[in-house]
Amino acid sequence: QVQLVESGGGLVQPGGSLRLSCAASRSIFSINAMGWYRQAPGKERDLVAAFTSGSATNFADSVKGRFTISRNNAKNTVYLQMNSLKPEDTAVYYCYARYLDKDYWGQGTQVTVSS
């Protein structure tokens, strides 16, 4: 099993930045895929950014050029750096991991972009 603990959400003005962190309970070397999804009210949960196989990454078109994903292997932590935030980025952000063909989710952290 994998436990995921997120942190770093909050309220930010349009154009601002936030960094989300997701700490895993096991070595991220053993995890097949890890990243972030988000869910806005009344909408489906969608991929934001993720490490897929190896060091490959995948981003939603809506965040390309604004968000980056990185990781600290020693801390078993994945980060989502969000820049140039827009009101439409407002959502609950969930950390995600796929391990041994099972999906695991964090508890979610709220990101609100508003003036």
Structure description:
Helices cover 0% and strands 52% of the residues. With 115 residues, it is mostly beta strands. The strands form two sheets. Strands 2, 4, 5, 6, 9, 10 and 11 form a seven-stranded mixed sheet that branches. A four-stranded antiparallel sheet has the order 1-3-8-7, with no helix packed on it. A hairpin with a 4-residue loop joins strand 7 and strand 8. The chain is globular, with a radius of gyration of 13 Å. The model has no long low-confidence stretch (mean pLDDT 94).
User: Could you list the spans in which at least 5 consecutive residues all have pLDDT below 50?
Assistant: none
- N-to-C terminal Cα separation, in Å? 40 Å
Global geometry: globular
Radius of gyration: 13 Å
Number of helices: 0
User: What string, H for helix and E for strand, traces the elements in order?
Assistant: EEEEEEEEEEE
Major sheet details: 7 strands, mixed
| Overall number of strands | 11
Helix content: under 10%
Mean pLDDT: 94
Structural class: mainly beta
Strand residue content = over 45%
